[in-house]
Records
---
Amino acid sequence: MPPKQPRRATRKGDDTQPEEAVTAELSPEAQSAEPPPKKSKKAAAASIVEAPLPIARTPTPRPEKVDGLVVGHWNIAGLNGLLKSAERKERFLALLREEDPDVLAISEHKLSEAKAAAGIQELMALCPAYKAHWAICTAKNGYAGVGVLVKRGLKVLRTEIDAICTLNEGRTVMLELEDIFVVATYVPNSGQDLKRLDFRIDIWDPALREYISNLQKTKPVCAIGDFNVAHLDIDIWNVTAKHIPKSAGTTPRERESFGKLLEDVELVDAFRVLHPDATGCFTYWSTRAGNQNINRGLRLDYALLSKALASDGAAGSLRLHFCDAQKEYAPNGDHCPTLVGLKRT
């Protein structure tokens, strides 16, 4: 996710006194002074700062549910925080009830090795219909991490945990299912002052391309997660702003590298296959700036599919059916869930 904006100063303890009490404390000279001249209506109107209008979101209606496979991802920004919030916990459970995903990846769970067991036990008690696979960061406490919930009864042939690079940051979980590989990932952020940009472009991204390419030799792939990049201009609410080319997630190098992932590995952005011109369809908003209320965001979360899964003429048992971001489950969060549905043919 992009670097956090500086926290704005807030007023604390603003115990305003009644007007008459304030007047009593003024000096005699101040009390007898003439009031300042009133502003003209035109000047007063010019001094009012209008609230920004929300950015419109193109409707992306979902087709009727069919038999198939639903895979989701949500950057939850801390599992313990989610479990401590009754509202967030209820929205998480509502996602499971209403969307009924077969596979749901959660990234940035921030579980440490020492505290993972307790958090995992509490979460799984809430969703007994699921099993889970976890990648936990061992390089730094309370950082990164990916977990994948899998509906009981869905056969998992093989798993690989944190198999890309040697970061030990809990960045990937791979599940081999009967028809498809699911790769859940939380791609490293280039960081403040782009300190990890070279690592990401020169090491992580090539390793991710190679990993997915090797999987595709056996069966199709669904790679889903927080890729920490806004690929297209329409994925950035303020794309013309001067700071955009110098900000993590929106630099030309990151955006070009994401395009290389699609092209070289023959993947497609499932959302853009279905909604190529949709605008205002973001998955991340700055919470400190309150940007979700006015839909000023970025699209950082993706479901990437092998081209065969999006082609009606290709052989195989699964085809792209829908893909969308579900903002209603995270009205006050920075990321919202992304879901992709594959129908059986």
---
Amino acid sequence: MRRLAFLLRPAWLALFVVVIAFAYLCFTVLAPWQLGKNTKTSRENDQISNSLTADPVQLTTILPHQDSSAPDAQWRRVTATGHYLPNAQALARLRVVDGDPAFEVLTPFAVDGGPVVLVDRGYVRPVQGSGVPTIAPAPQESVTITARLRDSEPVVQGKDPFRQDGVQQVYSISTTQVSAVMGMPLAGSYLQLVDGQPGGLGVIALPHLDAGPFLSYGIQWIAFGIIAPILVGYFVYAEIGQRRREKAATPDAAGGPLTTEEKLADRYGRRR
């Protein structure tokens, strides 16, 4: 037991605590975080790929009611007939399109025989830094549009909606938040117009089908969680072996281990 007493020293105890905490975080937080992002990205890539070949369907077959949402049909192309409600328009700010800042223009659309759904008409570029440019109005007559279903985005915490340049502005396309800002009910999913549609502005391209590095990052965190305790075990084993070798190499006259003072005296030739 005396040989292992050094493991109870504060420095070693602190090392054990840090390694255990690190391994715990690797398995419960860091690896699941990256693997979850990989699962989400892979699912979205599959939805985009499927949408490229699937024919458009009527919006009301997927969003039949005002409180409907369609997370499993994201990116699916749909068609809807109805009319825009341009008086309730809002802008999603701090967006990036093709590497440059942009506003995305959000206008509610009343579907004939269906819900009121939020439509992302596309993007416009800011002027003079973050100023709102002149935006072409949406048509007021009845039109038929083709768009892609999109999931509602989470609300950006600490960034409240505000009104500037005569337009309501938000930091995310959250249908719940935009509904509250506009003062009207909106379906749980929103629409993103494809090219050549009535009321369309700058077209937002589909994301690249890239799985990203999330799977490899997740595997790396798992490996780190396994390797860290192994390394500590190796250091403990090496320390015990070193102490045994020192004891065997420098016994005192009584056959016991030398004290620290005796070791120093012996090293400098002053031991009697």
---
Amino acid sequence: MTEAKSPASAEVPDLPTTSWAVLGMLSHADELSGYDLKKWADWSLQFFYWSPSFSQIYAELKRLEKHGYATSRTVLQDDGVRGKRMYAITASGRTAAAQWVNHAPVEAPVLKHSVMLRAWLGHLAEPDRLREILSEHIGYAERMRKLAEVDAEGADENPDWAYPGAVLRWCIRHYEAERDFAEALLADVDKLATKTAPKKSAKGKGRRAS
């Protein structure tokens, strides 16, 4: 007699994480268009994972339909001519998404920080330019913190967005820390610039002897 598979051992395709992100967004609503998904990703996912292009979203939707995790239909616009394609998660898609959330391995986050790479190569940088780069990054982190704060407040108004709201609050703390860490690094860079600045020599002053 063949044993029934437990939910933890059920077969789930090895999809990229971006597929699960799109499927997860579909799980929040009855139907969403590609435009809706893009708007939702920019509203929330961009702060901690992904800011997709429309082509990326539609590529993932096509993949999800192929696996039977999503369906789509064309809805006529108000003019009765143009059609808008709407996507919905299927029952098997919801089951697969829950399987991934609950049983996928916990992976270490991948940090690809180009600003830190440039600071790491600070011995090649012009001191003033490196300060500008770090100052620009500090401004970016503060802008993202403010945006996440606004979106978290919006999420708090809708009980269905309790978990995204909690993650957005995590994002606020993340960008606060990113800003503070960059400010500390900028202070370290200033100290290094002082230590490594060439000292002016007293030699060579006055008229050179013939």
---
Amino acid sequence: MSASSVAEQVATLRQQGFVVARQFATPDTVAALRDQARQELARQNEPIEYEADLQYPGAPASRQAQGGSTVRRLLNAYRRGPLFQAWATSPAVAEWLRAYFADTPVLSTAHHNCVMTKHPAYGSLTGWHQDIRYWSFSDDDLVSTWLALGHETADNGGLFFIPESHAQSFSAEQFDEKKFFRADLPENQPWISRAVCPDLQPGDVVFFHCRTLHAARQNSSQQVKLSLVHTYYPQSCTPLPGTRSASMPSVPLA
């Protein structure tokens, strides 16, 4: 990818809070990561977050209920082998993020760092939220990467984003007790009406800001959707001591 293309994408991220980098990962990389993710999912290798753990709309009532073993996320992707490590610290990702941060990018292994799955039937709906809601850093200029390992649309649980929401100062009252952006408030509805869901092909990457409001529907297709998600911050930023953000080692991208 040319320097001018990266610069244009960085400018788009700054302006609207997200940008899609088409065919950012090669077909061979995507195929290898998808195969590895499927193997990990079939083996149910821990650590795992189950849909029943979070109780989002559409999730099974408990792990003992029908569909209770439905996986939501394969956690700690960076520790699941060299393929995942190579992607998370790849030169292409490092170059792109260095252009955004104007600093050395650092991978957080405490947040995201997972294979995100969306299953038919028991894959839950995710309400509008900002990722920064439970994160604790000295600054809030963090960026996540969302790599599509298959085709993603609104119908199979693809992400919706609200453009320019990352630059808005919302009040605490616009969120519920779990820090989800309230769809029932008249003042929030004009924002939600602006939402877009980019269609993603395998290898496309969404770079999105930690303050950008995003959400996802349930998966109405017949296939499990797989995505690989990581979060990065500039080296000049630090996770706050004693918080979850500082609970796992970070990885600078040299």
